[in-house]
Design a protein that fits this description.
Blueprint: E1 9-15, H1 20-24, H2 26-36, E2 40-44, E3 57-58, H3 63-67, E4 72-73, E5 75-80, E6 84-90, E7 92-93, H4 94-101, E8 113-114, E9 117-118, H5 126-134, H6 152-158, H7 172-179, E10 189-193, E11 198-201, H8 202-212, H9 219-229, H10 236-241, E12 247-253, H11 256-259, H12 274-289, E13 312-314, H13 325-328, E14 337-350, H14 357-368, E15 382-386, H15 388-396, H16 401-412, E16 414-415, E17 438-439, E18 447-451, E19 459-465, E20 477-480
Parallel strand pairs: 1-2, 2-3, 12-13, 15-18
Antiparallel strand pairs: 1-5, 4-9, 5-6, 7-8, 10-11, 12-14, 14-19, 14-20, 15-19, 16-17
Helix pairs in contact: 5-7, 7-8, 8-9, 8-12, 9-12, 14-16
């Protein structure tokens, strides 16, 4: 490059032939080369025969353009030998180029202004490809070579990477694209994944998010779900090993639910919403593929439940006077939060007849009494999902969420004599020593209340917790996104 001995300055120009502005300034390029001699380096993104003079540097690989973060061509960069890049201009503005280079008659015969074109580094899909080739954070996960005749979808099944449903093959480009969803470094260690206690990086989380079908904008929520699952209070290792039905249930609150299009309404706990389905699935695949939590291995669930594919939904937060689950747990309404609960399948509560809050509370309490077993108390926590119509009944009657919770607790207090082992000719139940006690169905803070579902239908639901809920088992945990 030209080095002005007085100013220690040189210039680099990035162009492409397929740009009308670059073609327009070809005489300017020749004039710059004549003035600066070897002090001008010209990099061409598409055709090494352009410009005719000076002889350009072939940047069809786009390495230089990517390294210099070129967004528009032409871009003229002034370089100072001691500090690197000093300044840059782009497009064609005659007066600006003359002032920038100090050449008063530069491009005198040309029009005064013409905007530039987009750099080839910004062509669709190119950003991820260049990040893979030249980015500072290289992927380090083991690459799997496939034979020419192998079906990539079937390979994912054959090698045990799938939960039984097809997965998206985690090609390097897809993984790089997923990593664009976070500012965190791919090699950052996020934690140790049970049951095999394998170190897990952000890159490995991204690989499984790709396989689950996530979009990059979902990735921060996926990361938060992993961080929540790895909290000691959640007891992920124990949840994997149990013969009970339970698996991680995810409830998402805050602005992120709207930003990524999660479903809190009609069929919120069912199929059809990509964010709900894939965020929940990503954690399950990570536990399987990184941690080794494979059914029939350490996963010994007697029956399991369909939620072990994915169990994730957003809360309906449309009532500003009704605190969300995240707010119950100390967060603000404007916080984006994911909460994990060790839960089983969905138990319906059908009540289309109640017209008073007292009646509806009794009805819900009757269903809550059957959590785990109607004669077992303080074993399993639960999430009560109140539908919008049932919530409306409470709110129109002047009941707050705290009022609902207290009414349920009061309704569920039961004499021990009714639920001890052998009572009512039923061998299951509480120990004999509790027969003279008043028993609470749930431990303190063991009943969690949220809202989801369509606005038509007086159907609420219960997600029963793992029977190892509580201080010595699994507790609901939350993680800010």
């Amino acid at each position: 490059m030209f080095l002005n001995q007085a100013t220690n300055t040189s210039y680099a120009l990035v162009v492409k032939k397929d740009c009308p502005t670059c073609a327009l300034i070809e005489p300017v390029i020749a004039q710059l080369a004549e003035t600066f001699n070897s002090g001008l380096s010209v990099y061409v993104q598409d055709d090494p025969s352009f410009p005719v003079a000076p002889v350009p540097i072939d940047d069809t690989s786009l390495e230089y353009s990517y390294d210099r973060n070129i967004e528009i061509v032409p871009t003229l960069i002034r370089l100072a030998s001691e500090v690197g890049e000093e300044a840059r201009i782009y497009g064609w503005d005659k007066k600006q180029w003359q002032d920038f280079t100090g050449i008063e008659d530069l491009g005198q015969e040309l029009i005064d202004f013409k905007p530039g074109c987009g750099s080839k580094t910004h062509d669709p899909g190119m950003d991820e490809l260049l990040a893979l080739r030249f980015g500072s954070s290289k992927l380090v996960a083991r690459a799997v070579e496939l034979a020419e005749a192998e079906d990539i979808m079937e390979v994912c099944f054959d090698r045990g990477w799938s939960d039984g449903l097809p997965v998206v093959p985690p090609t390097p480009i897809r993984v790089i694209r997923m990593l664009k969803g976070t500012v965190r470094s791919p090699d950052e260690l996020i934690g140790i994944i049970p049951p095999d206690n394998v170190p897990c990086t952000i890159e490995k989380v991204a690989i499984n998010a790709v396989m689950a079908g996530c979009k990059p904008e979902y990735f921060p929520t996926v990361i938060a779900s992993v961080e929540a699952a790895l909290q000691d209070r959640f007891c992920m290792h124990g949840l994997l090993c149990t013969t009970y039905f339970s698996s991680p249930v995810m409830v998402v609150n805050g602005p992120v639910t709207k930003q990524i299009g999660m479903n809190s309404g009609v069929n919120a706990l069912g199929q059809g919403n990509r964010a709900n389905a894939t965020i929940g699935r990503a954690l399950q695949l990570l536990i399987r593929n990184v941690g080794g939590g494979v059914p029939g291995g350490i996963d010994r669930a007697t029956l399991g439940n369909p939620g072990k594919y994915t169990y994730c939904f957003a809360e309906d937060e449309s009532d500003d006077d009704w605190p969300s689950l995240a707010m119950d747990r100390g967060y603000k309404r404007e916080d984006s939060v994911i909460s994990l609960f060790a839960g089983e399948g969905l138990q319906p509560i059908l009540d289309q007849q109640s017209r008073t809050p007292e009646s509806l509370a009794k009805s819900m309490a009757a269903s809550l009494r059957t959590v785990a077993n109607a004669k077992l108390f303080m074993l399993a926590d639960a999430i009560l999902i109140i539908s919008p119509e049932h919530r409306r009944l409470y709110r129109e009657s002047g009941w707050s969420k705290a009022d609902v919770r207290q009414a349920l607790v009061d309704e569920l207090v039961t004499p021990g004599a009714e639920v001890i082992r052998g009572a009512n000719d039923n061998a299951e139940g509480m120990p004999e020593g509790l027969k003279d006690k008043q028993l609470n169905k749930f431990r303190d803070n063991g009943l969690h209340i949220t809202t989801a579902g369509g606005k038509a239908g007086m159907f609420s639901a219960i997600i029963t917790g793992w029977i190892a809920s509580g201080e010595k088992g699994s507790q609901i945990v939350s993680q800010k996104i």
